[in-house]
Structures are given as structure tokens and as C-alpha cells.
């Protein structure tokens, strides 16, 4: 079980290490698993002279290429060495076929920070622009188109499809890929909250590795003020355990509150809908709040996973466009006209989070990773 992250490039797995995965109590739904190169007949180490080896200067003490990934969350990193092995992919046909893909990934010997708090139970699947990411490797080998899509369901179920270039009826906007620091960024030219529209121009990163959306002013203040002015509910008192400023009390019979729609107008004029930007949080037993899950940022604008819920998002690196369409993320082919089932009470509300009175909660950290996929390698995983 690995976290999916468009904000970083390297795919890595915990590998023959001690103390580098969450304790069993914090990852009960995903027991610790380790990749063990010596148990795989197809595992190969990546030599220091490989084009993929970015730390050649540190190869003097080892025959394998080392790696170190440092993430946005404080003191969060993964380090180890690079290996090659076989990744199995299944085609999306009525009669699926399995494809063997020789890929490169990190054998993670040391993990720190949020990775010890279940941010990525068995590793992280980097989906970034760099040539070492799995989508790049698959495209370089001619196994898929240089594109992939992800679909996030409100119930936590979703899909990732390598080679998916979307559909002719999807909405699109150009990707602004910075060559020095490649990310999946787009230009927002306006924000629509209910019937209110604000014109502005900001660059925004689409990052599935960030749970919630981060916005700097003026975008943050415009959305939050517009949202609050159109909500008919009691605002919850400020709570240091909650990173969101705009939260509202829920009654025992409510799963959510009536909220205005939020859309982002992108370069080219297409609207990206934030279908489910809220978060239900358990304050204490039988007490819940509904929060607009946007965190105020000092500089970066990041569209997190919560803004992508209920939408198939296409990262087309070949055409350099971001595409999207409302979609039933449980299905391979069911398009937009669907209604995610609403929960009947706050305790069963989707994306429910519990706020503890013990030390600061960690689920909202800047690089908290929520979407997971199963990865099958041509070797035993223990």
C-alpha cells in the first residue's frame, strides 16, 4: 500500500530497515511491508554511472546509487539506494492482460518525520515530471502514452490509469511546467464562489500528495469570505487543533451544511469544480463540525486532494495540459452523471477526521498523503 504523490518523482518502498515504518497501532489498516532485494530473482541494483543516479558524488562507499528525498513536511525524508525490478500492470480491457514493466525505485533504508506517522504506510509512489518517475519510465520504454489520470472518490476509493489521455469532452487548461523545479502547475484567472466572481491571476500546483488545499492571499481571503457570507450556519469557535479557520457546528441530524459552490476559472476559460472541498471533523463524542478544508499559505498555492474529489484528473505530459471531468471514480468507464451517496449522520460522514485532545494532530500536515494503491512487484513482499 503506497501513497500516490504528483508532487514528487521517486517511487520508494521500505527496504530491509528497522524503525522506518509506522508502529502497528497507527497503520492498522496497512501492516508494515518490506521489499527485500535478495528475495527477488529479477532485482538489480542501479550503478553509480546510471543516468538516473543523481547522487554520483556520494557513490564512493557503495556500489549502488544512493538516493535521498526530502519532503515539505518538517523533518520528513526517505533515503536508501536505487534498484530495478518488475512492476505488473493490468490493461483496462474486458479481458485484462498483464504487462511486465522494468522500472526503477528506491529501496528505502531510513524514513523520518511524517512517514513514521502513517503518511505513507508501505512507501510512496512518485508521479512527478522527472525522468525517474514511473509514468516517465513507462513512456520512455514505449509501454504507455506519456500521460496518466487519477480519480478520487468521496468514499476513499479511486483509480489511477497510466497512459490515459482523457476524453474529447473533458475540460482542459495548459500545464505550466517549470524546467528548474518541474511540477504540475496551472494558471488560475478567476475564482467563483456561489454567484460571486473574482478576477485574479495566480499559479497553482496540483499535488495529490497534499491532503488539503493551500492558498495565499488574495485567493484565500476571497474564497473564505465569500464562502462564509453565503453559509447559513453557526461558525465554530477557533480551535488550535484544527488548521482550518472556517468551521461550522453540525447538529446531530446533519452530515454537512448547505454551502455555495466553488470553482476555479483556468487559463483558457474552463472551470475546475471543487465538488467536495469540506471536511467533517469529530470534536468529541457526538459533536461534529464541518470545515472548509483550505489552509492559509504564506506563498505557495496548492490544489490538494480534497479539491480533486469526484473528478477524473488527467495529467497529460505529452500535450502539456491538465484535463478533468466529473466522474464516478469507482468505475472504469462511468462518466459524470452520478450522485455520490450522502451519509445519513455525522458519525458516518465521508472524510471524517477525529480531533484528539492529546498532542497536536498529524493528519493535516502539509504533506499528509491520503490516496493509496496496491503495487505488485515480481518478488515476495513481507
TrEMBL record:
Domain Peptidase A1: 1-325
Region of interest (Disordered), residue spans: 331-352
One of the record's GO molecular function terms: aspartic-type endopeptidase activity
UniProt xrefs under Gene3D superfamilies: Acid Proteases
Catalytic site positions: 5, 207
Polar residues composition-biased segments: 331-344
One Pfam family it belongs to: TAXi_C
Gene Ontology BP term (one): proteolysis
Coiled-coil intervals: none
Family label: Belongs to the peptidase A1 family.
Protein name: Peptidase A1 domain-containing protein
